[in-house]
## 1
Amino acid sequence: MTENPSSIADFGNAIRTNKFNIVEAVETRFSAINKKNDELNVFLTLFQQQAEIKAKMLDRELFTGHDRGPLHGLPIAVKDIFAMPDYSPTAGSNGIVEFGRDVATVIGRLEHAGAIILGTLNLDEYAAGGTGANVWHGRCKNPFDPSRITGGSSSGSAAAVSAGFCLATLGSDAGGSIRIPAAFCGVFGLKPTYGRVSRFGAVPRTWSMDCIGPIANNIKDLGLIFEVISGHDRFDATSSQQEKFVWLEQRPEHQPRLALLSHPERYQKNLKQYRKTLLAFERHDCKLIEIEIPKLKLYTDYHQRIVKSEAATLHRKALVGAAPALSFEAESVIKDGADILAINYLQALSERGNLLREFVQLVFADADVLVLPVSLEEAPTYQPITDKSSNQIDEEFFAASIFTRFANFLGLPAVTLPTGIGENGMPTAVQVIAPPFKELMMLNLAIELQSKLTQTV
Amino acid sequence: MKDLRKKPDNPPKVDLLGKIIRKPAPDPWQFKVVLESIEIKNPKLYD
């Protein structure tokens, strides 16, 4: 057994100073997974044999002086939506999604950087949910308290890091699917700017808003993974040609200026932890700037038009019974999209650019970032939803996602920053949201904010 | 269903010569161009 490093840098130091080798690190991870996965239901598939072969190869490489960089030999895991060599993902469904011989760009980049994929992770069916409950594969449970939900749809991606199964995972975020489970499981999650990470070879939820991003134990690790997976990809038409992201830790030259909503209680009642966090930031010299975001509900409404229309299009065969069936829950979420008029869908897409310009001018005129709650303050206890109507499900998700969905509609980057433990003993978090392509500033500022929280404790 | 002719979001305007002019609706697929062209005018945190 090897001691468990808590960051990618610690892991790198350990394998380069022979505290343990990569084969031992991989064995330790599988041993932990095999002990606890039956209880938590985090992994759907394990690639133990392939991982051990790759670990031996990477140990040999390091021994002969071939060092691939910070991710060399790093055991990771990914949401079950990515095409891999000889593997088709389930996307949380009762079938598989065929990609032929294609390999997801992010998988290729991670493997080239030396990461070892231990297996694929549980998720809400077709990423169309926010609880981590999955009829076909079982409910993914929160490592902090298995009676509570993980949040979703990247349920396994957050739970795997939280449970200590691996140091980092990949998830995807179309309306909060990285940020919410990261918040509920007490880990860090990055939703990048739209277009900054290729979606080629990944099962879509909504092609106009999907973002792939990392979940990890700390901000620096998010930066290291993001550097590897981001960058232009000619196989994804929406992929951005902006300058490549390079992770670099920087101290800010002035105190952070944080925009916040003037009356967030209008949208959500219990925000005690959020208020407490803001006070801590203010006590440590952050400038707080209260703003109104009068179109917050409009952005969310437009988000829903787009995600529902595109999801119904993607699953049109299943909706008419010509493909493997959807569960009741997934069908409830997806079927309404078939009734959305084309002009309403196109109106939402048409106004997106102008609304983004207006939002940036309004929010980032004097502030570096926007700090908002992520979702409900703490992960709620799991309750089956089979007896609820689709309208009820919609309303509950609308309320709980008011602070996350708009960032997908506007294409903005955001990161979940854990802030402590709440009244019910579960993790709490805020999200830090930045202008497009300002991930480097946002992540560094999040490190600064985290240090202010630590000083408070 | 809402009758778009009664309450148009983009009402036609009549110019001095009496011609009806209508502002074209933005292209739904221009979002990426806008996203990549956003500039922040305030002093940057790390500049």
## 2
Amino acid sequence: MGEFAQQVINGLSLGSIYALIALGYTMVYGIIQLINFAHGDVYMVGAYVGYFSMTTLRLGFFESLLIAMVICMVLGVVIERVAYKPLRNSTRIAVLITAIGVSLLLEYTMMFFVGAAVRSYPPLPDYLTGSFQVGGVTVGNQQVLIIGVSLLLMAILQLIVRRTRVGRAMRAVSQDADAARLMGINVDNTISFTFALGSALAGAAGVLVGVYYNSINPLMGILPGLKAFVAAVFGGIGLIPGALIGGFFIGGVETFVSAAGQSLYKDAVVFGILIAILIIKPTGLLGRNVKEKV
Amino acid sequence: MKKGLVSFLVKAVPLLAAWAIVLVLINAGIVTDYYLATMATICINIVLAVSLNLITGFTGQFSLGHAGFMAIGAYTCAMVTMAEPSVLGFVGGLLGGGVLAALVGLLVGLPTLRLRGDYLAIATLGMAEIIRIILLNQDATNGAAGLSGIPAFLDWNWMFFLTVATVWIIANFLHSSQGRACISVREDEIAAESIGVHTVRSKVLAFMIGAFFAGIAGGMYASYFYFIKPDLFGFLKSVDILVIVVLGGLGSLSGSIIAAILLALISTALQPFPELRMIIYSLALVVIMIFRPQGLMGSREVSLGVLNRFRRREPAVATASAAPAIRRDDDEEVV
């Protein structure tokens, strides 16, 4: 029982990171039906920004988190404006290939500047490194931090999407971009804002991962990015609650597969889940079935 | 009949000449092993790109898992030739790898090809990752260290004729009724279905043929470079192949061939700077998509069939304007 609860805690902290990344995927997909392959690399950039802010600038954890979020926000908007906006009316394959191109560009540009070597995150202040016992389960302060920060950001996101004008514009554009434009919504700005929100969350996830796993490298974004995408698909792509459920589910599955001594196969299991979901219910757990029209 | 023969010779003679010239140069020691390795890379990339083009360019099914099929072919061919180091073993391994890759293509394709564009891309990517992870964790495949000391059978003759055969078979498939059905699926799936094209069968067929030749390419790779490991067949390899197809033009076999040669030369030149190579690759992807999404060739073809035009011009002047469709058809032929 204790072992199980321990793995649940581990799964929750990993899952909240996946959920943060998956939110960006799902919002972008919801609004322009694009799998933003570069999203995982925005997360990688966030991790590096956090790293340099903590080492070179000697800032604290929360300041670094904020800086990473702001820089990733700008990066996300720039990517959208430069690479995706000119392709608004192209085929989906064209945009998808562009997204892969942007992803590789971010990875290898980063590698060019910082080198391919793995870097380890600077040690955290004492209040973040300790751990405490709850009923025989060891909970690290880091884990509390990760889960707490994630939940806070998700709550803020939900507030923006549900309660503000720009949030309402986002929902309108995702339902029908043309109709939204007729109602006087600036669709381009709304799309940029969506990228800004998603990228900021990815940046935060990057710093949290750096703190949690203590090592970062320029290619670290590929696999978590793909898994976060699996999480988004699992929950129903385009749906914010779906991304949360999916993120926690994938994090949990991965943790339990590792705990069962099959850690070598944990990625294969995640992709197996993806294929199974796509075959059984391609719209995801919470998705509704939309008939394709001629 | 005679006309067909002449047309065939017009295409076959330059090809055979190219093959013979290189053969002579190899025997004369002018083409060294270093150049031959580049040529092997080009041949393998042509086979990979042409087969991916069949799936993505002509049938419109976006696949990100081509490296997975290549891995199946490479490991099959490697293990068969290591157990049976003879030409027979090599051919058996090559074909076995192709067939196995095609079967996996069928297994994955049947359910997932019902998905639309980008979902399919992710599903195929997941499939390739699963293949790689399985190879990584088997004793028989020697895990992450991979297999080395694979008997080398792929000389210039093999690589040349395997490549030509691949292009020839796929070009002919595309001109068959099944091939036309595949192209109609790309143009408009719903319209194709409404005129009686079995869209799922067309997609699965294209997927299997593409997978088969990706497997062959994997076998060629294993046999020439006599060392394989799972990491060689990761996501980046799939992207590499995709770059060739996109650069050459989705829906142009000759474009794929030209792009494969061009990119091999560029990456040979950039060998000392591997990071720069990837930056240029990725920039090229983005820039091509924004400014010339149809690639170098679009869906046009250049072919040795062009040579036919010079021959036919004099007697065919009178009928040329009457039969533009037929002429266009000829121009599209490859090889």
